[in-house]
Amino acid sequence: MELIFTYFFLIIFGGCLGSFASMLIHRLPVDDHLITLSKPRSFCPQCKATLDFFQLIPFVSFLLNKGKCLKCNVKIRINYLINEIVFAVFVLFIFHTMNLLDPITWLIVSIVISLYVQSMMDMETLLLSQPISIFLIIAGLGLNIFVEFFTLPIDALLGLIFGYGILFCINQLHKIIRSTDGIGSGDFLLLGGIGSVFGASSIGPILLMGSSITLSLYFLKKKKEKQLPLGFGLGIGAIFYCLLFLFLSDA
Ligand SMILES: [Zn+2]
């Protein structure tokens, strides 16, 4: 019985993390001083009506309203529900692989949220948040220098340099050949952050996984755009790398 309550609580908590991620994904790229991370309260993107308290409860709100806004009846994008489910599953995974009382666990959770937000934001808007990438760099270096969690301190430092450097160099080459930027500078910083967290040795596999994910997204999408969201693939690739690492180190 106790375990059922624990699971229930964890799923709701994961759902809240998912809503928090949705909020960051939708608000960070908005260039409007009236919409900040803390204000205004959550509202319907269509009719701008403020959501009631019970509409803020993860899963419940979506199911009760059958995925529609109560005021204007317009369908709410399924992405909100997907983000809640993804994080509910993630929190259950963390519960089984890590110690919830250890502060390092929560640093890892915030790293995964950051990677997820960067991915989804890049997919929707082709924008990446600089403060989030800087957070990844600081968190990664701190985690590996002080507790050698994912890798050795020197590998984390090299990861920052290689991650940033490799995309920077590819872009310089592209500039020489085609005289335009081929890769956004946001991607350099993101891969630098990923390198700081998982080490220089992770850059190869994550870059390979990331570009394959981004290319598959391109082929799956009906509307072909000129720019590809490389950051989307990098973020998802890094999350897979992280989950595999936690799973293997737990086993
Ligand atoms: Zn509405």
From TrEMBL:
Top-level taxonomic group: Bacteria
Record-annotated membrane-spanning stretches: 6-25, 78-98, 104-120, 132-150, 156-176, 188-208, 228-248
GO cellular component term of the entry, any: plasma membrane
GO molecular function: aspartic-type endopeptidase activity
Residues in Prepilin type IV endopeptidase peptidase domain copies: 111-218
InterPro entries for this protein: Prepilin_IV_endopep_pep, Prepilin_pept_A24_N, Prepilin_peptidase/N-MTase
Compartment(s): Cell membrane
Membrane topology: Multi-pass membrane protein
Keyword terms of this UniProt record: Cell membrane, Membrane, Transmembrane, Transmembrane helix
The keyword Transmembrane helix is assigned to this record: yes
Stretches assigned to the Prepilin peptidase A24 N-terminal domain: 12-96
Gene3D superfamilies from the UniProt entry: 1.20.120.1220
Gene Ontology BP term (one): signal peptide processing
Isomerase found in the keyword field: no
Pfam families attached to this UniProt entry: A24_N_bact, Peptidase_A24
Family under the similarity heading: Belongs to the peptidase A24 family.
Protein name, UniProt field: Prepilin peptidase
Lineage: Bacteria, Pseudomonadati, Pseudomonadota, Gammaproteobacteria, SAR86 cluster
